[in-house]
Amino acid sequence: AQKVTQAQTEISVVEKEDVTLDCVYETRDTTYYLFWYKQPPSGELVFLIRRNSFDEQNEISGRYSWNFQKSTSSFNFTITASQVVDSAVYFCALRGYSSASKIIFGSGTRLSIRP
Amino acid sequence: ETGVTQTPRHLVMGMTNKKSLKCEQHLGHNAMYWYKQSAKKPLELMFVYSLEERVENNSVPSRFSPECPNSSHLFLHLHTLQPEDSALYLCASSQARGAGGGEQYFGPGTRLTVT
Question: What do you get for the CA distance between the two ends of chain B, in Å?
Answer without folding.
Answer: 33
